[in-house]
TrEMBL record, chain A:
The keyword RNA-binding does not apply. It comes from the Eukaryota. GO terms for molecular function: serine-type endopeptidase activity. The gene is IMMP2L. Keywords: Hydrolase, Membrane, Mitochondrion, Mitochondrion inner membrane, Protease, Transmembrane, Transmembrane helix. CDD domains: S26_SPase_I. It is found in: Mitochondrion inner membrane. One of its GO terms (biological process) is protein processing involved in protein targeting to mitochondrion. This is Mitochondrial inner membrane protease subunit. It is a single-pass membrane protein. GO terms for cellular component: mitochondrial inner membrane peptidase complex. Belongs to the peptidase S26 family. IMP2 subfamily. Residues 14-102, 107-151 form the Peptidase S26 domain. The active site is at residues 43, 91.
Automatic annotation (TrEMBL), chain B:
Keywords: Hydrolase, Membrane, Mitochondrion, Mitochondrion inner membrane, Protease. Its EC number is 3.4.21.-. One of its GO terms (molecular function) is peptidase activity. Coiled coil: none annotated. Transmembrane segments: none annotated. Gene3D superfamilies: Umud Fragment, subunit A. This is Mitochondrial inner membrane protease subunit. Residues 16-97, 103-142 form the Peptidase S26 domain. It is found in: Mitochondrion inner membrane. SUPFAM superfamilies: LexA/Signal peptidase (SSF51306).
Amino acid sequence: MAQAQGFGRRYIKAFLKGFFVAIPVTVTFLDRVACVARVEGASMQPSLNPGGRQASDVVLLNHWSIRNYDVQRGDIVSLVSPRNPEQKIIKRVIALEGDIIKTIGYKKKYVKIPHGHIWVEGDHHGHSFDSNAFGPVSLGLLHARATHILWPPQRWQKLQSMLPPERKPLQREQE
Amino acid sequence: MFRNVLGKTFRFLGYTVQYGCIAHCAFEYLGGIVVCSGPSMEPTIQNSDIVFSENLSRHLYCIRKGDIVIVKSPNDPKSNICKRVIGLEGDKVCTSNPSDFLKSHSYVPKGHVWLEGDNLRNSTDSRCYGPVPYGLIRGRICFKTG
């Protein structure tokens, strides 16, 4: 009887220790350091999801690298959708604050990116809901930078930060 | 002796990480104390008032019209601003200044909110930088001290 009570108390102690240690540490890690996500949709073809609906890519999202909001032109980032806050979208950064770019299908032909905003576009122009639809997005909506493709194994690679030459800004803000 | 000090250091680091993570989870999903500065929300919130902000409403998407919210500044993501929600998506809001003769109205786009400070004469808010995406909202102020 005494031994069973001892086991019960040890079990409760181990459970509480796990609860107060493992869960906050895991949640903080997934929120602040890195997490994993599956990409859906065709807006970033051919860089992501070239196979369409048959095989969705799984990417590694790095929160830590954007903790100071410094992104470069050409990075693939995930952000909270300005039209639907419950959804995250994954796009490529085309222009930073102060750049002047030529848009594709936006209401203004030339846009100067305001302070604290960025311009994002999907690689598959025409099949992408991006800044050409909703304009420059605030840096505060930035969620993570996609650094690697983890699945499927034959597509295991580090994602290159590469700006398509035809989408270079017309005028850059001098650093 | 050295092993003792090393053991103590690791235990100290372990506790720091553990309590840091608990603090992050508490602030992110429950709420925390915020110090407000600036005159844009007078008389409701004065300069250097201490308020408690609960961060559960924004995860459950139940921010209502009339709530006072803490929002990441659209033009500077490292700073926060504190304003009142005047309109949710689809609402009709007045975008002109009080001093203008002709009033102009517009509708708040989908996924955005319209913010205004209570001290209309001394507040830069949505009348200046436009509707703010819902994703920038950090928390809702539920009560203030003093």
